[in-house]
Each structure stands twice: as structure tokens, then as C-alpha cells.
Design a protein that fits this description.
Layout: H1 15-26, H2 33-58, H3 65-91, H4 97-121, H5 126-137
Helix pairs in contact: 1-2, 2-3, 3-4
């Protein structure tokens, strides 16, 4: 049974939301406190994704179509979240420029790894997709 299904445990606030609020309150002078929390959550998700990729994608001779679709879906979500983190950082004028640059480099490094995975497992379909969409884009 999921915790969200247990009526006695449903407070309406997830542990993740509580941790995010705590991060903001613990460092009120840090304009990036919430961003740092979101980055660490995303970084952990990227690490878990890489572990899953090692065991369920790389470990198989020919991954099943469902596994590849799940892989692609997770990649899209992780890349989207990473781009959003980069955008939020770029828009935060209160951040120190040196720190800002270092943090952005970290996000870009993780995004690069995710893009590499995309090109390795899903990139070869791109020419066929472009050809199929060409009549709609002309």
C-alpha cells in the first residue's frame, strides 16, 4: 500500500515538500537555498537513473521496447528539470557571479551526460523522425 493511500498518514504535504521548506528556512540569507535543494534532488535522481541504466539497459543485449520507452521518458524528464534549474539560476540576479558560473557548470555537466545517453540509445531515430515530420514543417 502506498503511503498516500493510508488515510491516517495523509497530511497533504510530502516529505520532499517539507525538506524544500526546511531548506528555505534553514538558510534565509541564501537566495539559492531552494535552488540548491532542487539541484541536489535532481542530482540524486540523475545518479539513480544512471544506476537503473547500468542494470536494466546496458546489462541487456537488446533492451525490450518498454524498457527503452521508460528510459526515454525518464531522460526527457531529467533533461527538462536540468534545463529548468539552469534557467532559474540564469534568472537569479542575487547569486554571486563566480558561484553562479560554477553551479551552472555543474548543471551543464549533468545535462551533458544525459544528452550522451540520449544520443547513445535514442539518437538514431532522429533522421527518420525528421523525414516523417518534413511534410508538416514545410
Amino acid at each position: 500500500m502506498k503511503l498516500s493511500q493510508a488515510s491516517s498518514l495523509d497530511s497533504g504535504v510530502s516529505s520532499r515538500e517539507i525538506r524544500a521548506a526546511t531548506a528555505r528556512l534553514a538558510c534565509p540569507a541564501d537566495p539559492l537555498a531552494e535552488w540548491r535543494f532542487e539541484f541536489e534532488e535532481w542530482r540524486a535522481a540523475c545518479a539513480e537513473f544512471q544506476q537503473m541504466e547500468q542494470s536494466q539497459i546496458l546489462g541487456e543485449n537488446s533492451p525490450a521496447p518498454l524498457k527503452l520507452r521508460q528510459h526515454r521518458c525518464l531522460l526527457f524528464q531529467l533533461m527538462s528539470q536540468g534545463e529548468y534549474l539552469a534557467l532559474c539560476l540564469e534568472q537569479n540576479s542575487a547569486a554571486d557571479r563566480m558561484e553562479h558560473s560554477g553551479l551552472l557548470d555543474q548543471v551543464e555537466a549533468f545535462l551533458g551526460t544525459l544528452r550522451d545517453s540520449w544520443h547513445t540509445w535514442h539518437g538514431e531515430a532522429l533522421p527518420a523522425h525528421r523525414q516523417a515530420l518534413a511534410k508538416f514543417l514545410a
